[in-house]
């Protein structure tokens, strides 16, 4: 049996919801459906999830949530009318108005897009609606409780007679409040359900033909990846390939369940298969290229640093105190760099952090740049093939891109390159051309 997750674009309009319906009803094995909130209907449109975050912010600012919630309501009313199903939206939205007014965080508000989307889809399909709050559980400290969740999903869904629709993106804390995953988290919900019901396959339906070698918004019409390993998927999605939430791999890996990325708007295409073992497939040297901008790079220099026992630990302890996670720590004899991805997002006071490092290790100099892009070139094939790095560096050199950092993971599954944000697109395009157009 199959678990199918449909993303925001698939849930955005009556035309796309009709595709979703046809896809599910064309195969009786498609028994478990996970949905996102409706996404953009056209370029410039706003995703329902973003409207909900904005509604919560308005509520906090001036207690007024009606205007934005009415906008969302009218989208659902239109969808239901066009899909010819009847739902008591007045009562659903009354509960949401009250719930948002009572919420201490924006999680409840944000989760309602998925909730309403699932209510709608269950009606359209005549499937049962099962609330994610009953299945997906977090611990008191906010961490996801995989064991408890897996038990609940198995008990509640595995032997379900009828098809089931579950909202993506959220679950519940022990105090019964709603908590969401990070953005794009419906992919993770789909993977959790797939593991819990021991699905034969996890189909992730989106708005592109599959996982592409690189971001189609940077390189036009990049090659499609036919087969990807779990490890490659993790590297690429963690490093920025936004097709799948980076945590999605864990539940399916634990259950040995293949993922199939498919296009809701071209269901006849086979999409990308993500498997545990890809050794039997004929695959290119480099499987994919992904990256993200806006990382912070702090470079600390001090003569004879290498002789100073505990130097790195002291610097890192400051970073830890600020709750930041370290991505890379390239070191030289007298220099140490720390690359951090979430400094901007966490609104850390950079000056204060640098002063703390100064106080701790008394460096000769300390520099910070907030515009470093990290790019990962990923592929199992790179490990045994000399010259891969040379090919990447030559391509970047020819494109006039200055390399600021190089790191090769010990698994030899990836090579990470740091460049200036301004060079990000050119660097991705140059690496893509070197491996896929030569
Ligand atoms: P959904 O709403 O279905 O979850 P997302 O917008 O989260 O869809 O993810 C699909 C989008 O990911 C595509 O429309 C594409 O723009 C973007 N994307 C980024 N990197 C890649 C890649 N390597 N391959 C395919 N799509 C990618
Ligand atoms: N709707 C949520 C978001 O926009 C979750 C998801 O689509 O996966 O991030
Ligand atoms: Mg997504």
Structural notes for this entry:
With 438 residues, this protein is an alpha/beta fold. Helix content is 37%, strand content 20%. The strands form three sheets. The chain has an eight-stranded mixed sheet with strand order 3-4-2-1-7-9-10-8, sandwiched between helices. A six-stranded antiparallel sheet has the order 12-13-11-14-16-15. Strands 5-6 form a two-stranded antiparallel ribbon. β15 and β16 form a beta hairpin. 44% of the residues are buried. The protein binds adenosine-5'-diphosphate (ADP), aspartic acid (ASP) and magnesium ion. Magnesium ion (MG) binds next to loops. This is Aspartokinase. Its EC number is 2.7.2.4. Keywords: Amino-acid biosynthesis, ATP-binding, Diaminopimelate biosynthesis, Kinase, Lysine biosynthesis, Nucleotide-binding, Transferase. It is an enzyme of class 2 (transferase).
Tell me the β content: 15-25%
Residue-averaged pLDDT, rounded? 94
Quote the distance from N terminus to C terminus.
42 Å
Topology, number of strands:
16
Sheet/helix structural class: alpha/beta
Count of DSSP-assigned helices: 13
Shape: globular
**Radius of gyration, CA atoms, in whole angstroms:** 23 Å
Heteromolecules bound: adenosine-5'-diphosphate, aspartic acid, magnesium ion
């Amino acid at each position: 049996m199959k678990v199918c997750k449909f993303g925001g674009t698939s849930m955005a309009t009556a035309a796309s919801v009709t595709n979703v319906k046809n896809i599910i009803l064309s195969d009786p094995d498609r028994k478990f459906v996970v949905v996102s909130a409706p996404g953009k209907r056209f370029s410039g449109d706003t995703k329902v999830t973003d409207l909900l975050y904005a509604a919560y912010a308005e509520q906090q600012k001036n207690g007024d949530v009606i205007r934005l919630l009415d906008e969302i309501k009218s989208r659902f009313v239109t969808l239901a009318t066009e899909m010819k199903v009847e739902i008591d939206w007045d009562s659903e939205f009354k509960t949401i108005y009250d719930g948002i007014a009572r919420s201490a965080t924006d999680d409840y508000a944000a989760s309602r897009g998925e909730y309403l989307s699932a209510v709608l889809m269950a009606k359209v399909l005549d499937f049962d609606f099962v609330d994610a709050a009953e299945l997906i559980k977090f611990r008191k400290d906010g961490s996801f409780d995989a064991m408890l969740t897996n038990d609940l999903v198995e008990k509640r869904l595995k032997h379900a007679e009828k098809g089931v629709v579950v909202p993506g993106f959220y679950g519940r804390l022990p105090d019964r409040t709603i908590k969401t995953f990070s953005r794009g988290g419906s992919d993770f919900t789909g993977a959790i359900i797939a593991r819990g019901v021991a699905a034969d396959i996890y189909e992730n339906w989106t708005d592109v033909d599959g996982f592409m070698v690189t971001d189609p918004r940077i390189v036009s019409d990049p090659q499609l990846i036919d087969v990807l390993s779990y490890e490659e998927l993790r590297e690429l999605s963690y490093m920025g390939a936004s097709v799948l939430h980076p945590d999605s791999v864990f539940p399916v890996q634990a259950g040995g369940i293949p993922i199939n990325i498919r296009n809701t708007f071209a269901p006849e295409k086979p999409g990308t298969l993500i498997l545990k073992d890809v050794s039997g497939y004929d695959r290119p040297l480099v499987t994919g290229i992904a990256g993200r901008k806006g990382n912070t790079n702090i470079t600390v220099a001090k003569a004879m640093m290498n002789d100073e026992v505990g130097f790195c630990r002291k610097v890192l302890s400051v970073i830890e105190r600020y709750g930041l996670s370290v991505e890379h720590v390239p070191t030289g004899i007298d220099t140490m760099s720390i690359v951090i991805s979430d400094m901007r997002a966490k609104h850390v006071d950079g000056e204060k952090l640098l002063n703390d490092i100064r106080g701790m290790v008394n460096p000769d100099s300390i520099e910070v740049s907030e515009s470093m892009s990290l790019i990962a070139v990923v592929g199992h094939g790179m490990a045994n093939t000399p010259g891969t790095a040379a090919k990447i560096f030559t391509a970047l050199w020819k494109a006039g891109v200055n390399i600021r950092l190089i790191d090769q993971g010990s698994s030899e599954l990836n090579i990470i390159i740091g460049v200036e944000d301004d060079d990000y697109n050119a660097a991705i395009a140059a690496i893509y051309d070197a491996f896929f157009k030569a």
